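Q: Is it fine to ask for two folds in a single conversation?
A: Yes, each is treated on its own. Send the first.
Q: Here.
A: Result:
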Amino acid sequence: MSTVERLLDLLEGSSELRPLLRTLDQQQVIGRFLNIDLTSKFQSIYEVSSNSQQPRYTTIGYEGWVRSFDAQNSEGLSPYNLFARAAREHELIALDRLCRTLHAINFFSMSIPGFLFLNVHERLLKNIKYDHGRTFAAILIAMGLNPGQIVIEIPEAAAGHRTFLEFILENYHRNGFKVAINLPSAGLIHNLATLLEPDFYKIDARIACSDGSISPLVDYTKHQSIPLIFKQIDSEERLETLLLAGAQYVQGKLFLTQTAQVDKETIAYT
């Protein structure tokens, strides 16, 4: 029995998501939602350490993304269009949990070290009234997986609501998860730092590079001892700017040397 099949067997009877998941070639899991097939894609997140000649990149984790296909969209649906199909509250909750469970099974079945970063939809945060992460933690524990290896990414739209954000972080931490806050702007971090204790910050490198905030932001987060991940790095020039300013954690399309096993994307068939 493959690791994927074993994890699905452990999920049997413990989650209503089990009928929405199936294996492909005993190596990957595919999800099914409203006649749409869902697969996982992972992008590496690196810690950079410099020597006298060349930066060294060490993988600390991977961000899981959903890819979706249906009979009318063989090229795939964007995540926005996928979640737009979940018009009702119960559909959104089921889809969001399905995506995170799908990524967790596909990731942990490959026995890859590092954290798994998973996004949570903004609408889900609003629809779940209390105890965020409890159901997902129960799903993971049923499969023998550790919620502490998963980093829940809070979307940028939620970062400006401090009281709400504090409540969400406390919930996810209580249920065993780590948490990353996606910053819509560099300046917002000063409003959050005295109130919250996330495990990671993330910010779009294009925003940070455009407003000249990289060095102060890096210094500030280093002082807090909270890793700051610059995402959406798509050019050598942008990467060089970040590294010269002291950036230590990076992510983006520029990096194409992912672990071959992780970089492989399963194609789902409808």
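Q: Second one now.
A: Result:
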Amino acid sequence: MRHPDITVWTTWEGEALLGVAALRQLSPDHGEIKSMRTAPGNLRPGVARALLAHLLALARARGYTRVSLETGTAPMFAAANRLYEAAGFIDGPVFGGYPESPHNRFMTLALR
């Protein structure tokens, strides 16, 4: 996460870290949601949804026409996959040098 083309955000409530998200510029018009994590005690109050909305708004402000992400296929990723699908992400091509496997899923969202 220390690469110059990656920007990281955190969200807090008082002294409690609620979540972390990162956006990477892949090209002038293509961004990657590099990371999204919600603190274990905050898994249902909308933290991830708010972080995703922030990343997508920033991607639009940066002029990206597309945002992609790589996530997992194991049951522990089911909630994340539902979140991305609800936001309009669809399955997309492999990108960014990630290896394709049965254990990962590539998703993309066209931004307007």
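Q: Anything structural to flag on that second result?
A: Two points. The mean pLDDT is 91. The first helix runs from residue 47 to 61.
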